[in-house]
Amino acid sequence: MLILLTTILNDDSLECRVCIQGMTVVYDLIEDGATEELIEHYLEFACNMFEEGEWKEQCKVFIDQEYEKLIKILEGEFPVETLCTLMSACEYPLPPINGACDACMVGFTFLEDLWSQDLGIELMEFVLEYVCYIFPEGKWRDECDKFMDQEYEVFIKWLDNEFPPQMICTLLDACEFPIDPIDDGLCYFCEGAFTFLYDLFDFDLMNDQQIEVVLESLCGLFNEGPARQNCDKFIDQEYEELEKYIKAEFPPTAICALVGACDVQPPVYDTECEFCRIFYRMTLDFISADFTVHDIEILLDSVCDVFQNEAQAQCVEFVNTYYEALIKALNEKWPANTACEAFNACPAQ
């Protein structure tokens, strides 16, 4: 069914109305099995509906250069409003933009919505080529074009691994990350970085490849220099442990203590009972609310690394002695006094 191009949509510009109606007609032509020649002829006709000027020429250039991709997009039932926005025929309803962070968040929120439609890499590459047209001509479109030219392949990887806009825009330095591993210390950075990641990602739903890309990208939060070098070194050294702890959803404080980014106060104890209570409370604090027996096993295999010297030796001996009992007690969240009495580490009260 053909729709007359002269039908006017009350709330849009002429260019937008013509584009939307024209692309709707093309949808119908494709659905009716029209030949490519007929579709191309109609698209050229649609461009000629505009008055002489920049948009008419831009329309023709777009059709000439992107015809094959355009047909694939239309065959995939891509929203015509979005397509006409990418063609700059329709104006994107931008929120107030007060800086680079706002602009970046707008652009990647737009892309995130499209990526969720599972369009495939080829069509998303097409979208990335034209996404900057959601901004009017001027500063933010120019900034967007510059970002796309510099980081195109990286954007594909980030979007394909479902990086949220906040993460991408922070990695691009458009949005500020408030912690520096040199100025603020490695411990504060580590806890802040993993809190940031936990706020943005649901690691429980991510596969190994996605987690790997997240960890590889983490140090991009910093500009080139000592801060990034320290971060890269830290990630390289602790990658396997970090991946394991993230999968187990250990809290940031636990992760950073277990990999040595944060120091744990040496336990002060005189008896096995005192050590048991200190160790058990710390271990219980290290596991997440939704932990599994496997998570507890991972923790018990590593937890003694937070101690040094005599305390570490005491910890290893304690874990080896009470390993199965510790798993049961931690899994059932027994209080420290109850657990240590059950282990016979403390006398019954």
UniProtKB/TrEMBL annotation:
InterPro entries: SapB_1, SapB_2, Saposin-like, SaposinB_dom, Sphingo_Act-Surfact_Prot
GO biological process: lipid metabolic process
Entry keyword annotation includes Acyltransferase: no
Record key words, sorted: Disulfide bond, Glycoprotein
Superkingdom of origin organism: Eukaryota
Xref: SMART domains: SapB
PANTHER family in alphabetical order: SAPOSIN-RELATED
Protein name: Putative
Lineage: Eukaryota, Metamonada, Diplomonadida, Hexamitidae, Hexamitinae
